[in-house]
Write a structure and sequence with these properties.
211 residues, alpha/beta, Nucleotidyltransferase, domain 5, 9 helices, 45% helix, 16% strand
């Protein structure tokens, strides 16, 4: 049974730091395309941006200098990534972080992302499941019964779990409000609401309310 009525691409970057404006770069990417309620395609790669990998990043992620030195160059990966995302809705957990790196790396190459809207699974979780003790991906996924299948803090593993969180949200909305399939545009609208207004908004959008 479909969960979403249009594709959504879940994105996760590993990076050398927190800010492209401060010179930080991407080291690994995973982009997973969700169709209906399943991951149907993925783009995963280490990335060589010709930068030094800080030791604390290696300690956190396991990504070493040798791994990125032998990886495909950024001017190959980013155009391939942008083509993979295309015009679909883009999602990430703490989405503004990943989007700012995507835009910064694209701009370096004279390119521009084409995704239709940015969906934050962290914000969505706060609005759809209020009052949970934590919305960090590792803790949130455990609270929802979703397990990491491999090490956290690697792009594909984090993107996989974030995708499952998003699918869980879609299934929850379908069961609770009667949506046969959830439009990504509805989720984008929920993202922008205060948590206290979400239930009433979804009730008004539910199919039964429009009969």
């Amino acid at each position: 049974m479909p969960v979403f009525d249009k594709p959504i691409v879940m994105l996760d970057f590993e990076t050398t730091g927190l800010s492209p404006a401060m010179g930080d770069r991407i080291t690994e990417v995973a982009a997973l395309r969700i169709v209906d309620g399943r991951i149907v395609d993925r783009y995963v790669s280490l990335i060589n941006c010709d930068v030094r990998i800080p030791s604390f990043i290696t300690g956190l992620t396991g990504i070493t200098q040798a791994m990125v030195d032998g990886a495909p160059p950024v001017d190959q990966v980013v155009p391939e990534l942008l083509d993979f995302i295309g015009g679909d809705t883009l999602s990430a957990h703490n989405a503004s972080f990943d989007e700012k790196f995507l835009c910064a790396e694209a701009e370096r190459l004279g390119l521009a992302p084409r995704h239709q809207g940015l969906l934050c699974s962290l914000k969505l979780s706060r609005r759809v499941f209020p009052n949970l003790p934590s919305y960090k991906l590792g803790t949130l996924s455990g609270q929802l019964g979703i397990r990491f299948r491999s090490a956290a803090h690697r792009a594909e593993s984090d993107a996989e779990v974030a995708a499952q969180v998003l699918i869980h949200i879609g299934e929850h909305l379908g069961r609770t409000y009667g949506f046969a399939a959830v439009d990504p545009g509805l989720l984008l609208s929920v993202n922008k609401l205060a948590a206290a207004k979400v239930h009433q908004y979804l009730q008004k959008q539910a199919p039964a309310a429009r009969v």
